[in-house]
Amino acid sequence: MRNSTTQPRGLRAALIAGGLALVLTTAACGSDAATGSSGSTPAATTAAPTSSAAMTESSSMESMSSGSSSMESTSGGSSSMESMSSGSSSMESTSGSAPASIPMTGAAPTALTADEIAAAKATLADPTTLTVCTSLPYQPFEVDDGSGKIVGFDIDFMDALAKNLGGLGTKIIDAKFDGIQSGQAMESKTCDVGAAAMTITAERAAAILFSDPYYDASQGLLVSADSGITDISGMKGKILAGQSGTTGLKYANANAEKYGYTVVEVEKISDEQQAVTSGTAQAAIQDLPALKEVEKATSGSLKVVQSFNTGEQYGFGMAKENTALTTVMNYTIKAMQADGGYQASYAKWIDPGQG
Known about the structure:
alpha/beta; six-stranded mixed sheet; 17 strands; elongated
C-alpha cells in the first residue's frame, strides 16, 4: 500500500509530545479531500447498443464489531464475514459456501448506448473530466509513480472508465479514506467515484452505490522481522495499529479483548508502517497485497507473518443515487475482463506470475 519512494507521514493523533494517543473506536467520517494530482488522459471510444449492469452489495463485514474470535473464514456469499462475530474460537472456519472468486476473464458485455454514456457524463462534477477520489499511498492499487502521476491497479480501471465515457481526462484527488468510504466525497461532488481498494460492506452500501466487485481481498498482520511475533495470538499486552475507516481496524477492535492487545487508530498505511518501524506499535493490520508491498519496500525488515482469508471483495463507490455512472463502471469491469485488460493490469500490479 505504500510506494518505497514515498516518505511516511506522521501518526494522526497518535503521537502527542512523544506519547501514543490510543483511539479505540473508528473515527467519524467527514469530507476531507486533500491534494490533487492528474492521471493520464485516455483516447476516445465509440459506444454502441444497450448495457444493464447490476450493482452488487455485500454484507460481508456486517457483524465484525461484536467481538469475533474467528481469524480465517471461508464462509460466504454476501455474508462472508458474519462468522467473524459469532464468538468461535477456531482460527479457520469452513462453514457455508465460499464467495465466488472474481474472474479475470469473461464474455464481452453488451455495448453501451450513446444515451447511457450521456446520462453518466451528466452526473460528473466536471463534464470534461472523470474526478476520482483515492487515499494515498496504497500500492499496488494507487500510488504516486515519483513524477506526480498516480498509477496502480485501481487507476487502470479509472482510466478505462474515463475512456468509456467518451475519452475523458482522469483527475485524481488524494482524500482521507473516511470521507470516501462514508460516501461524503461523492455526495458533495468532490469526486465522481471513489477508487481506494474499498471492501464492499453492508454499512458502506447504505451510503454508497457500489460497482460490481472487482477484486478478492484478505487481511494481513505486519510486524518487525525481529519481533518474535508469529501471529495475532502473540499480541497480548502489545499495541496493534489499524487505519481509520478500514475493515482491518474493525477486525482489530472486534478481537482486541480476545487477544489482549490495545488498538491505535492512524490515518494512513504509511502511518501504520511508521508505527511498527518506530516501535510505537508492535504490529499493524491491513489488506494483504498492500502489506506485501511494505514488506518488499523495507527489504524484509518488516514482515507479514499471518494472513486472514476474510472473504472480502473490493468495489468502486459512486454517490448513492448515481445509477448512470455505476452502469458504465460495471460495463468497464466486464469489458476489461473480456478484452484482456484485467489480466494485464493484474499481472502488472498484483501478481507478475498471472495474466
